[in-house]
Every structure is written in structure tokens, then in C-alpha cells.
Amino acid sequence: MKLGFFTMPIHALSKDWRLSLREDREAFILADELGFTEAYVGEHQTDQAENITSCTMFIASLIGATKHIRLGTGTVNMPNNHPARVAAEIAMLDHMLDGRFNFGISPGGLLSDAEVFGNLDNDRNAMFLECINQVLAIWAGEPPYNLRGKYWNVVSERHFLPDIGQGFLPKPLQRPHPPIVVTAVAPFSKGVTEAAARGWEPISANFLMPVWVKSHWPKYAEGCERAGRPADPANWRVAKSIFVADDDKTASAYVTDPNSPYRFYYSQLYTKLKANGRIELFKTRRDQPDDEVTLDSICEQLIIYGSPGKVAEEILKFRDQTGDFGTLLYAGKDWKDPALGRRSMVLLAEKVMPKVNAAIGTGARAAE
Questions:
Q1: Is the four-CA dihedral 26, 29, 33, 39 of positive or negative sign?
Q2: Helices in 3-123 by DSSP H: which ranges?
Q3: Residue 365 has pLDDT above 90, yes or no
Q4: Which of 150, 179, 307, 356 sits 20 to 30 Å CA-CA off 344?
């Protein structure tokens, strides 16, 4: 099992924006130093708590500060962007990173973002597909462009001057394009199937109950079968909220405190999803009454915390529930206590994952 990082950071509304951005960058740099294989960052334009407004700009700030880790958008919210701009910016970013880049995409889930961009009442799934299809057509084709859709047109016919290089949109360094990943946030996600059929890979969100995470694998396998390619668990990424401390007492105190960044994280998501009629994501069964879903029940079931030994055991239990997957994405949280936030990542990489992989290796050998 590889170790990666995924953050849609949720910070206290009173926190200095400069400090939260600085700490978010430090988490990525630390992940690189610790050998995390990849790291993704989300974006929202209208949320004071989730306050990274451009994942591409944030990633660009890390190019010189990281050496080995692959950096990824987590995600570019396609309906809020013109496909020509996405194609050009992602191509440039891929070159700046020398191909150390994964392209995460989604329809976007924050309704206030959709509202300010004027697409709240549109079919954003249709917009998502049109946008990514036009981006891929730009990268696969040559100018002059004449891509016409319901929501966007990409045309460069009237001012195409090939002799001086005018009218060309850039292509990424990785050909035909960087690896494309999609976030899966719904039980039995049809989007996972469609993505797999196109050769894209899934990230199962860290706010889904294990039973719903498990539902993604058969949908992924279905899409791979449609495309005539093997369904490899190594390509499945699963995000999880984890906190590791040197002892169980410290971990419990940090995670369960009423002002814990972990509780604040899920409090924010619970409020948003409940307002959007999507509380089902926090249920353990589809017929579970809404009033049984509480912040306490959510935190109890979605956060793994403790000493390295305890966390290793809990990760293995989680894997038993969901099935095998290739990359565990540590879900970043606000560093209310920077020393503990850093220590958690260090212990996960240096103490927990070796225990996890040793156990997986022992189980594989026993199965043989």
C-alpha cells in the first residue's frame, strides 16, 4: 500500500489566511520529504474555511519546494472554468513539474461556487463532460480549432497565424495527457464506472462510510471490463482521516476535543451535506433515519486515531472492510497544533505504514 496526501483544507474562520496557506504548503513539503508518493489539493472560491481558491496556483508554488512527490489537482471544478483556459494552464503546469503531475477533475460540489459562476441551475454533470471532452480534444488535435458545444466554443479560425505561432493551445508534457483521476463521493457511483471506462482512476472520498467506499470497487471493475482492461486495485486511491500520536491518550485528546480540527472538519461537511440533502453519505445503511446521523457518530466511524500500533491495526481493519486498494491518501486537516500535525504525518510514514505493509505482505504470502 502506497501513501499519499489529499487535502480540501478546512480552517477556522478566524485563522489568518496567510498562516493557513503557509501551513498547507508546509504539509505538502513535509509529505515530499517523508516519501509520500502523491498529493492532491482542492479548491473553492466562495468558502472562508476551505480557502484555497486555485489548486493550480497552489501547486505552482510548490514546484521548487518539492523534489519527488507527484502533485495533483483535487480537483479542478470543470463547470466553473472555460476548457481553453483549463487546457492551457494544465499543460503549462505539467511542463513546469516536468511531468510530476496528476490531473484531478470533478463537477464541483460547493453550491455557492456554482451560484457565483452562474451554473447553479445548469446540468453540471453535462458541463463537466463537455469541458473535459473539449480539453482532451484540444490536446489531441491541432489548430485551427472549431470545437462547439452547448456551454462552450473553442474556435481559433479568424486569427490563426501559424507562421508566427498564433492560435495554438499548448499540449501537456505527458502524452496523450497526464493521468486523470476523479473523486468518488457517492455510494455505488456511476461516475466511477464511466471514468474507468475512459482509463481514468478513482479517489474514494474520506467522508464516506466504509460500506460506501467498498461499493466503488465493483463499479470500477465494471468500467474496466467495458474498456477491456484489467481492474487493478493498485489504481484505486482511498482517502481517510487519520491522526497518529506517540500514545493513545494524546491522540484521543486531540481528536475528540470539542474544538478539535477533526471535529470542526466534519462539522462543516455535515452542515453542508445536510443542507444539500446529501446526508446519506454519512449513513451506514440507506434506510437509516436521519436523526441517527450525528456529529459524534460521524467522527467515531470516519476518523482513525491513536498510537502507531493502534492506527496500523485500524487501517488494516478498514482495508478488510473495503477490499484491497493501492494508495492510502492521508486527509489533511488544519494544524491547530503544528507540532502534533507534523508528528502525525511523520509517524504515519515512518511507523504505521511499515507495519501495515508488513501485515499485507504476510497475508499475501499466507494466501499463496
A1: positive
A2: 17-33, 55-60, 83-96, 111-116
A3: no
A4: 179
